[in-house]
Amino acid sequence: MSARTIMLAMVIALASGSAARADLASHFGLNPRTMGLAGAYTGVADDVTALYYNPAGLVQLKGMTAAAGILFGAPLLNEDGARLDMRRETSWYLHVGIPFTGKLKDHLALGFSLNIPWGSLFSARVYRKQDPYFVLYDGSVDLLQLRVGAAFRIPWKPLSFLSFGASIQVLASVVGTIGFYAPFQRGEKTNDFDSDQRLEANLDLDVPTEGFVTVGVMARIGEHFRVGASYRGRQFIGVEIPVKLNTRLALAGNSAINLPVDATAILRAKYYPQQVSLGGSFRSKRWLVALDLTWVNYADYQVPFARIDLDIERLIRDPGVLIFLGPDATLLAPRAPKIEFSNMIVPRLGVEYTALDWLIVRGGYFYEHSPLKTTDFPIYDTDKHSFSLGARATFLKPLGLLPGRLNIDVSLTDIVYIGRDILGSRASGHVLGLFTGVEITLL
Fold first, then answer.
1. Model pTM?
2. How far is the C-alpha of 274 from the C-alpha of 344, rounded, in Å?
3. Burial environment of residue 91 by CB neighbours within 10 A (0 to 12, 13 to 18, 19 or more)
4. Is residue 273 pLDDT above 60, yes or no?
5. What is the pLDDT averaged over residues 312-338?
6. What is the distance between the alpha carbons of residues 244 and 145, in angstroms, rounded to a whole number?
7. For 343-365, what is the mean pLDDT?
8. What residues does each domain of the chain span?
9. Ramachandran quadrant class, 133 (left: phi over 0; alpha: psi -120 to 50; beta: rest)
10. pLDDT in tens, 254-264
């Protein structure tokens, strides 16, 4: 068994047991309402999701708010009409908003939000170069995400129409042990695996805490209009896992040799580009209309990638190992794809209508031109149309127990991946989403 096969198995092991994960905000939104409005929220931002969309909107909270909900996503993405094997998305959230009272009422508010991927606090996946995947949906790391922030409205005229806010998104640290199982390939030129020859190991994992900042501003124009702008910084997650192997390699006949190797598994698997959003909204007694334009710096996007760095000094100290390995042990990391992205602007439109005193219906649309320009690996992305529908039922003083209101929300979305030819294959499909949640506001 060659060293190159060992390295390949280790890279595959990084992917074993992992799942496809979408960027929640760009695909689904952060709660049922933002999904229903297709993310057109920079000029709305009147709940705790303002921490992401525009922190300045937090001052619009009317009372202490707590919300929770769950998302179900189903990627139905195809290569040449054949469905790719991608696990369904499940994630849940908890939001808490605290507006100040007294002299600071309507002028200062705090927010807290938590998003947790279902089933694990750490999930990662990277792909071998021959495996097709949709790069902006799949191939990312998911960690427990915490956002905290505050907003302040200027209390003095003539600037009292302005509010400012900032939040920090924290990808919480994970420390523990992970295990993986990876069968070896039967040969260098085949994709078949031999389950009798495998690599099993437990690795110590230490993912550091990372923080990313969002800042925003919002202006009230008269009674009916809001205009907002926000900036979200680049988010990057890389993981390094030290690996110690004592690999038994077969020689000619029935003999074998033990090869001790120190290595580092390096995973670069989450990269959100910096973004600038501009948005406006119009509100009347029954209508809300919101429009967003978001510039996304995909020209600097980095695709998910993994490699194994071997301790070459350790091998050099044992020349017998080098002689044994010979020219078959290239000891090179997998080649990164030659891929090019471009920046893009995403327009979003959302509409809400209060049909009854207790019932709100909503719909939204966004169009995303694919930022993927060229690639030499089967890494796919296409232009997208997204259509969303949602509804909210409101109950005042629910069950006579709470001096406030209870909102129950549900939204559906269908993101249509328009067919596109890439490297001789046709990429297309849909991503379906269902978001449901409850929100309690104490008035």
1. 0.80
2. 11
3. buried
4. yes
5. 47
6. 30
7. 97
8. 3-442
9. beta
10. 656 566 666 66
Beta bridge partners of 115: 93, 145
Give yes or no for residue 11 having a pLDDT over 50. Answer: no
pLDDT for res 249: 56
Which residues have a Cβ under 8 Å from the Cβ of 171 and sit 6 or more positions away?
A: 143, 144, 145, 207, 209, 210, 211, 212, 235, 237
Q: Which CATH architecture has domain 3-442?
A: Beta Barrel (2.40)
